[in-house]
Amino acid sequence: MATKKAVITCALTGVLTDPEQHHVPVTPEQMAKEARRARDAGASIVHVHFRDQEPGNGRMPSWDPKVASDICDAIRAEVPDILLNLSTGVMGDDISAPVACLEAVKPEMAALNAGSLNYLKLRSNNEWAWSPLLFDNQVSKIEAFAQVMKANGIVPECECFDTGILRSVTMFAKRGMVPNPPHVSLVMGVESGMPNKPQWLPLLLEEMLPGTHWQVIGIGRQEVWSLHRRCAELGGDLRTGLEDTFYLPDGTKASSNGQLIEAMAKIAVESGRVVATPDEARQILGLRAR
């Protein structure tokens, strides 16, 4: 039987990480250079968030379509074959800003947050790390995003923070809201969502439709790497990057996305997988050709 190739995604920068404290890229030039490092290390896809470009504001997100276009144009110029996967996560009913970015960039894929989550975290003294937040993704909002993606030839990647959200994706696919089989990201490690436990993965696979394209998004420190290894062994696709973790498998802090992708590619090979090229990823995931 042929070895199943592993598609590797690099999550370049994330939402609120402070670039003064961590090596996250912000400007179009920085994003393009990190995309190049990721591509050279084995990534076929980059997952992209946008940051405010005003000096000193790089910690804050931006939904300015011009910022989105400038960043994605720079990535495409630096790494012409890489696939783009855009974030769409916003709180509230108004999705006009992320929609404007999707329409401006027209990436091959985009994240589709597939259900709501009480976004919580405790400090060591059991005080809230931040005021409890509801990341609200009601069905009408999910459907509106899915319709925009379909109209623009964008494949939705359904982000699932808990088991109920994963099971809901099956219903969305059966209703024709998202492709069938769907694309699923298991978001694990958020304190109020699914934990970083490799032993959960076989059970979660049982809740997926046949043929589902799936990967793990492991949020945390070096403990995420055992989760990624199990994902690779079970045939899932792989994702890491400075959005998800700052730490390499040995516990040292990564200085670039390229180091994280090198570690992920090594895990893929050690698990008996072959790392897919961008063109192979397009075929495997059913994405539009260049």
Write a structural description.
The chain contains nine helices and twelve strands. With 290 residues, it is an alpha/beta fold. The protein has a single domain (5-285), classed as TIM Barrel, CATH 3.20.20. The strands form three sheets. An eight-stranded parallel beta barrel has the order 2-3-4-5-8-9-10-11, surrounded by six helices. Strands 1-12 form a two-stranded parallel sheet. The longest helix has 14 residues, at 28-41. The model has no long low-confidence stretch (mean pLDDT 95).
Jot down its keywords.
12 strands, 290 residues, TIM Barrel, alpha/beta, 9 helices, two-stranded parallel ribbon
Give a quick summary of the entry.
The chain has 290 residues and is α/β, with parallel strands linked by helices. Helix content is 34%, strand content 17%. An eight-stranded parallel barrel has the order 2-3-4-5-8-9-10-11, surrounded by six helices. Strands 1-12 form a two-stranded parallel ribbon. The protein has a two-stranded antiparallel sheet with strand order 6-7.
